């Protein structure tokens, strides 16, 4: 009898592990485009795909509205600890260059949208624009694999650099990079 109990437990364990793997595979497949496409992924030197998303006041903001400015597009979420950790340094970057040809567009992928993003921005005293993308419309054109991911876009709308993961945006090296890009757009 004890042997049968162990075999049943083993069978149940194997079944549960198999179900878990199946769920992981299905979730992974659901997160990838279902149609075959020959389009290239977004890489440095390519035009940044335009998007239109609401800000915290409900006003539609288009990336193309910022042609002529260097734009840092940051894809993030309030539940993402590395995102939260990099936000103060993004505020310092914004403070340094907000009066120049520069903008930050912080695109939140929180499914709760305004309900969680507005209090987050206020509680953390963040003054750069936050956009709401609860459906994740930027994920495919920008090739998002996780959060945070950031995209530095030049004044012509071309991707200069894609950064996967968090970054300290307030270092002298980063400030100089943006200063050069703002003042000398041809020196990418």
**Biggest beta-sheet profile:** 5 strands, mixed
CATH class of the largest domain: Alpha Beta
> Which structural class do the helices and strands define?
alpha/beta
Low-confidence stretches: 29-40
According to CATH, the fold-level topology of the largest domain is Glutaredoxin
Spell the H/E element sequence: HEEEHEHEHEEH
What percentage of residues falls in helices of 4 or more residues?
Answer: 25-40%
Main-sheet strand order equals 5-4-3-6-7
**Contiguous helical run count:** 5
The number of domains is 2
Number of strands: 7
What is the CATH-assigned architecture of the largest domain? Answer: 3-Layer(aba) Sandwich
Q: What is the alpha-carbon Rg in Å?
A: 21 Å
Give the CATH H-level superfamily of the largest domain.
Glutaredoxin
Shape: elongated
The rounded distance between the terminal residues' Cα atoms is 73 Å
Mean pLDDT: 86
Question: Strand fraction band?
Answer: 15-25%
Tell me about this structure.
There is one protein chain. The protein is of the alpha/beta class and 188 residues long. It folds into 2 domains: 1-31; 52-183, Glutaredoxin (3-Layer(aba) Sandwich). The protein contains 5 helices and 7 strands; from the N terminus they run H-E-E-E-H-E-H-E-H-E-E-H. It has helices at 2-30, 81-97, 114-123, 139-142, 172-183, and strands spanning 52-54, 60-62, 70-76, 102-108, 130-132, 149-153, 159-164. The longest helix has 29 residues, at 2-30. The protein is elongated, with a radius of gyration of 21 Å.
């Amino acid at each position: 009898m004890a042997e049968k109990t162990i075999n049943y437990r083993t069978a149940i364990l194997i079944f549960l592990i198999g179900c878990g793997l199946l769920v992981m595979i299905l979730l992974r497949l659901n997160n990838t485009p279902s149609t075959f496409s020959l389009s290239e992924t977004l890489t440095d030197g390519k035009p940044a795909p335009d998007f239109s998303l609401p800000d915290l006041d409900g006003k539609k903001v288009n990336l193309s509205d910022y042609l002529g400015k260097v734009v840092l597009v940051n894809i993030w979420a309030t539940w993402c600890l590395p995102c939260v950790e990099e936000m103060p340094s993004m505020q310092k970057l914004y403070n340094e260059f907000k009066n120049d040809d520069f903008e930050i567009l912080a695109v939140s992928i929180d499914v709760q949208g305004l309900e969680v993003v507005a209090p987050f921005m206020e509680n953390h005293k963040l003054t750069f624009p936050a956009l709401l993308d609860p459906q994740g419309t930027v994920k495919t054109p920008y090739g998002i694999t996780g959060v945070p991911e950031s995209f530095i876009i030049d004044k012509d709308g071309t991707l200069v650099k894609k950064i996967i993961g968090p970054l300290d945006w307030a270092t002298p090296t980063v400030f100089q990079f943006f200063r050069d890009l703002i003042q000398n757009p041809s020196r990418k």
